[in-house]
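Give me structure tokens for this 75-residue protein.
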Amino acid sequence: MKKIELLNEIKEILQVDMELTDDMKLEEIEDWDSLAIVSVISLFDLLLSVNITSQQVNNCRTIQDLLNLTNGKLE
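Here you go.
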């Protein structure tokens, strides 16, 4: 999967219209909450077969931090 495709999927589950940039802080996303975290975990599992924990996602501060959890599965 390409990085832009994953970012678009994340945008869809977070229901945001703005472009997601690598350095964007997750706390700046209005709907970044526990439901969003669970949704990201499910998305990574479904699309990338990457198993991550809520603690790993909670430790992320930026979009790039999230992308780093893909274990090199992005093109």
